[in-house]
Sequence to fold (505 residues):
Amino acid sequence: MTNRFQVRDRFADGAQFIGGLPRQGTSGRTHAVVNPATGEEIHRYELAGAADVDAAVAAALAAFPGWAGATPGARSDALHRFAEVLAEQAADFAYAETLQCGKPIRLSTEFDVPGTVDNTVFFAGAARRLEGVSAGEYSGDHTSYVRREPIGVIGSIAPWNYPLQMAAWKILPAVAAGNTIVLKPAEITPFTSLMFAQAARRAGLPDGVINVVTGAGPDAGEHLVGHRDVVMTSFTGSTAVGRRVAEIATATVKRLHLELGGKAPFLVFDDADLEAAVHGAVAGSLINAGQDCTAATRAYVQRPLYDAFVSGVAALMETVRMGDPLDPETDLGPLITHSHRDRVAGFVDRARGHARVVTGGEAPGGELKEGAYYRPTLIVDAAQDSEIVQSEIFGPVLVVLPFDTDDEGIRLANDTPYGLAASAWSRDVYRAGRATREIKAGCVWVNDHIPIISEMPHGGYKASGFGKDMSVYSFEEYTQVKHVMYDNTAVARKDWHRTIFGDRC
Ligand code: NAD
Fold:
């Protein structure tokens, strides 16, 4: 990396971005951002409290009329410039994302940052395609049409696993549609959300359109969700916190978009390309150290391929290189924190009593022992109703189970509370097609697992939430439709007035 900057200098003015300016938080509490690869403190900052949230919402409210009233073309131009600034700063973004998350620099450079730039370009274009769908004389005497309007100030809350992409997924459709926004990133990963807001300002987006408050969930987060000037809450995070957010948002009658946890099944039929499935399972379960809501977590493999699949995945997992996330040769970095690593280890340790760990199942020692690392882990012989199969682990852990009939495979794939993503592996178009229809998830891949694209929606079924990120479908969340109805008769005494006036009409 040639473009490193000193985090302490870059965020010396504070980890809040309100009304176009960096600010210190005023909660009276600080947070230390720790490098998960080393355990060293990178930066300490003042957390946002309720007063900072109030200031950010006020800035967003003040910016709303101007931004909502801008032409779609003007918003589109601003977002195109934004994409250019992001692309110019790509190396800085990748470095900061890797530093705070511990994700391999290859992932930040080849996935997180270009994905975000592409998303920005997509929404720059989509901003000009916002439209109402109908116009006509449905009553005979009136012309009706639908206006699609921005809603107001959006309050968004994001998780730590893909901080830059999550900021982009929340902010871009909201502002492309003419809303203004206050984003609360996870307090352990504030840097790239702040850089995203700074880049928007540099690109010329008006002050107050994008605000970032970095505070603790139960404190700044709940205040943002309950704020009376915030008209919509868009939350991405765990299902448990999503429930709490829903309670608060419902009490204040807000629009709600919830992107929650996942436990994606990976369904391998006996005619699948084994090599493709093995590679897909290892890459799909280890991406971002398994801290991906769509990661492959439960592989169901039809009996004839089961043994070969298990030995193939174990062998391939053992070739994965753990190391310094800033080293381009590193395949797998640490988990986000030491406590999260211990939580993942706890799931595996509790499974040992009734299942078998084929490979992994421990933290590496040696040079990596100070970091929050955990080895790629493969588990077999677990029961379908066991914790390791049912709960979201959010680590580099794959469980493999056998199945016999196609009916059974699809039933097992659907047998968790979650429904975010899934994949089906088969060379038979009819088998794969059946799986795409019958698996209850917001995304089903065929013969692949993980790729996402700006043009297509991302969002859950069941306990994985509701509403869509990315694509034009996200505009359904961030706009409201208004029916406008014009009288065409120019008649003072209308037929329907008989319901009031009777024959005196
Ligand atoms: P989390 O639920 O612990 O936290 C998410 C965000 O909510 C953070 O910003 C946190 O500070 C905030 N928060 C915590 N308590 C809060 C409260 N009481 N009120 C308001 N805000 C509160 O999740 P996490 O550990 O940061 O992220 C991992 C989770 O996110 C996983 O469950 C993962 O599946 C999910 N996720 C889902 C998607 C998706 O698109 N469905 C994408 C990424 C991550």
